[in-house]
Amino acid sequence: MNPNNVKAWSLAVLLGASAVNHVANPKFYYPVVPAILCTDKAGALGLMTRHQWVLASTVPEALAAAGLLIPGTRKLAATATAAMFVGFTFGHVTALRHAFGPKGTPAQRRIHAVRLPLQIPLVAWAWSARKN
14 FRET partner, CA 20 to 30 A, in 58, 64, 69, 107? Predict the structure, then answer.
């Protein structure tokens, strides 16, 4: 089996599972959505509620997963996935700041202290999946 296919397929499985989890457990992702983007948090750039952002994020994840499975679209999908993970970093930084703020809990601190650094290997994984 081609190792590049394994990278792409396993990333596609992760993205697909993440998309499903966003729908099944949306509140888990709320802290990662910056308040500035949320109409329910009086965000200056608010376009949707936090819940709507979480559900909307399933679309690029599902499209990226599908694109990774097709050799002809793999390079574009992997590049877009790497960019998506980089874009999510802002939300993870915001969540980490809140977790270590006055209302943060020890559990939130642990979760977000792990989630933010995970962006680095995720970006690298997506970038490496660009090869057919």
Answer: 107
